[in-house]
Amino acid sequence: MSIRTAAQRFRSPWAFVPSLFFAEGVPYILANTVSVIVYKRLDVDNATIALVTSWLYLPWVVKMLWGPLVDARGTRRQWILATQAILAVCLLGVAVALRLPAFLPLSLAVFALVALVSATHDVAADGFYLHALSAQQQAAFVGVRTMFYRAAMIFGSGLLVTLAGRFETRLSDIATAWSLAFLLCGGLYTLFWLWHLVALPRPESDQPRPREATATSAGGGGRWGQAFGTWFTQPRVPVVIAFILLYRLGEALLLKLAAPFLLDEHADGGLGFTTEQVGLSYGTVGLGCLVLGGILGGWLIARFGLRRLLWPLALALNVPHLAYLYMAYTQPGPALAFPLVAIEQLGYGLGTTAFMVVLMRLSKGEHRTSHYAIATGFMAMGMMLPGMASGWLQEMVGYRHFFLLVLALGVPGLLVLPWLPRSVYAED
User: Fold this and answer.
1) What is the rounded end-to-end Cα distance, in angstroms, of the chain?
2) pLDDT tens digits along 90-110
3) CA atoms lying within 13 Å on the CB side of residue 282
4) Is 2 domain-assigned?
5) Averaged over 23-51, what is the pLDDT?
6) Looking at the chain, which terminus has fewer C-beta neighbours within 10 angstroms, N or C?
7) Which of 157, 183, 218 is a domain's end point?
8) What whole-number distance in Å separates Cα of residue 252 and Cα of residue 384?
């Protein structure tokens, strides 16, 4: 094999797409999910956990606003490498902060930096994907990037949490156990950065946009202003915004309290699981069912159409919340709780797939990328704001009434469905 042929094979999308999107998913799951478990194990109260960790969604809400900066300053490849280097240092910083007396404000500050840099990395990685792959390759690898992003979810909230649980058992020191877990995670992320230094190609089209074009785009009269203008003037835009904010309202409350519920003692209304059991149930088996639900939901929509399946899939998202209500009353052991968590996550995967398809179908025309960014910004807001109040609500009413509220708050999203624009079903 010639050197040139070997180089071409090395720069195949297989050399960087899986690792790039795995690296994209890791900091997101650590900041928004694993941080909840860390603080719960370090005896932070539920109201504080939900409030402070929900703020970490904010960079994903507003990341569209600094997208033009990524376009204007340096290449997407340079942004990817720079943000990955910073993220590796930040994860090592979390490991250090967790061992300090003022661990909460210090680690939270590092997690906030992780969130900000990770959201910027997302912008660069998604843009790089469009430049480094041909249109045919983009279509062929969309499933690969999704699969490895989901694998990062399983790694973070499953394998890493399970490993930290084993460290807790062996060391009898929770702070040290989690510090070691993040130390290993930071080392792994350093390896990703080193790999991408070599593996990422240098597409000819991956060049900074002219400053004048970017400045115009960022202003109200250019393409960026046009993208916002066309999104906010689409048919039934108040209904669209209500749909995005309400469709997963119940799930947004549940998401921040699921792991604390599993970890809390029976006397506090929880299930009394160990950290390792939470990693296995919620982070491994549960997330596996979440991925399965996403795949199955996509296949069902492709086979039968969104018009027929939007209501059933919306119900699949909300009805399984009964599993947590049942567990709050009966406090079962792992033998029953594991499959109940898996069923709820399967429904979450099914219902969220329908939600994402609606967002994609509402993103049309030459500004479709910006439209999708705006929609996902509202999506992140719809998870952030309810999450901030979830811990306070749970402490006010207890787990039983809290999960009843989660179930009831699935109704407003269902009531919006009949009023969605007809364009949502145009591709069926």
Assistant:
1) 47
2) 999 999 999 999 999 999 999
3) 28
4) no
5) 95
6) N
7) 218
8) 8
